[in-house]
Amino acid sequence: MNIFVKKTKRLNSPKKIVLVGFMGSGKTTIGKRLANRLNLPFFDLDEAIVEQEGADITTIFETKGETYFRKIEHQKLTEILTTQSQFVLATGGGTPCFHNNMKLINENGASVYLKYSAPFLVSRLIASKINRPLIRNYNNNELKLFVEQLLSERESFYNESNFVVSEINVKVDDVLQALKIEIV
Ligand code: S3P
Prior knowledge:
Blueprint: E1 2-5, E2 16-20, H1 27-38, E3 42-44, H2 45-53, H3 57-64, H4 66-83, E4 87-90, H5 101-108, E5 110-115, H6 118-125, H7 140-158, E6 163-166, H8 172-183
Helix pairs in contact: 1-8, 2-4, 3-4, 4-5, 6-7
The structure holds shikimate-3-phosphate (S3P).
């Protein structure tokens, strides 16, 4: 397991844990398990947007466009970070890269980047691309090129996280170990 602790001073809100990472990095799955283990409420940013808009993510992208989606995403993120006292939050893969969201996240919580290589993410995304508007129309080769390009553009945002957990298959215990200095 590779855990890079980026910041060792006390976090502002150690019980506001925010998972970030590329599509397919397991933010929702790990987030739910982590919330369960820590007995904290779980929020999924995409789910919160779908609930508010009454439409799935693909429909929002298709009918209102990505700019609109990013605006709503920023609003929901702000709302959860500032009105909820403790939680585990799974963000969307693009969340850290728009509207200064990474700064907002780090000012209000403890961010954890679930880091995977492009080939690994591609292998995971092949099976689930249909529900993801940014990649649903790509064949496998186009998907590979797209993920490599977008990951290289986004990595600097993800790397602003307080913790970076990098494993072949990140487990809840890896994340807990990264956070241990702050929350146990
Ligand atoms: C996006 C990732 C998605 C969702 C939207 C845009 C992105 O979330 O927010 O489709 O820009 O990477 P997941 O990371 O949960 O797939």
